[in-house]
Amino acid sequence: MKRRWIAIIILFIGLFTISCFTIYVIGNHSESEKKSIILLKSIEDRDAKSFRALVKDELNIMRYFSSSFGVRGKNYAIELEKENIPENLRFPVFGEAEIDLTLTLNNLEICEKEIYATELDGYISMNIDSVSAYAEEIAQILGQGVSIDNKPTIIKRKNGFILVCADVDNIQDNTALFIYGLVAVFVQIDGTDYLYAIIDYRP
Predict the structure, then answer these.
(1) Contact 175, 137 (CB under 8 A)
(2) Interior CA angle at 71 toward 162 and 146, to 5°?
């Protein structure tokens, strides 16, 4: 009996230590970094509940082919109600390969990478008239921001921020012409940054 109580006490101390450590780590990040960490971990773990918590009402899911290299498919966009986001975070695309956010990040060791951040003047558009126009507008922001290949990078704007987990290259006239990976767009609504769009950039 005595050994059992000792084991319980050790387990309790261990859980308390982990909890405090987690709170301490999160507490030393900015709000944009906290939300970026939650997003990346929810994708890595296919945790739809945590993922949905970052969305206000709707989420725009897009795929955009940024160059003439590689095997091209169709540019794609869909607006989903928060409650209709798939449990496995795999978004079907009719006649094309599905958009699987976890596969996009499968080579990222998220817990071992620092999130880099920079700031750029200007605003993030919420006007999505077409996939091409919006994806190219975001590519212009990426071309001006500091991007570190395969490492999460935050580009802060006046009304939100962009999380870049992608290989960004071939920058001409401040526009990234080659992007391969995931770009998440957070916009400020009623004083809070919400996940507004995710773009699956392909070469």
Answers:
(1) no
(2) 25
The span from the CA of 97 to the CA of 181, in Å, is 15
Segment 7-58, tens digit of pLDDT? 433 334 343 333 322 222 334 568 999 999 899 889 989 999 999 999 999 9
The mean-pLDDT minimum among 16-30, 95-109, 157-171, 174-188 falls in 16-30
**Which string of DSSP letters, residue by residue, matches 118-136?**
EE-SS------S-HHHHHH
In DSSP notation, 36-101 reads HHHHHHHHHTT-HHHHHTT-SSEEEEEEEE-SS-S-----EEEEEEGGGS-TT-EEEETTEEEEEH
CB atoms within 10 A of CB 195: 24
Q: How far apart are CA 67 and CA 133, in angstroms?
A: 14
What distance in Å separates the CA atoms of residue 178 and residue 203, rounded to the nearest whole number?
Answer: 6
pLDDT of residue 129: 85
Give the residue from 109, 129, 139 showing the smallest Cα distance to 201.
Answer: 139
Q: Which two tokens stand for residue 91?
A: 């978004």
Q: How many CA atoms lie within 13 A of 140 on its CB side?
A: 11
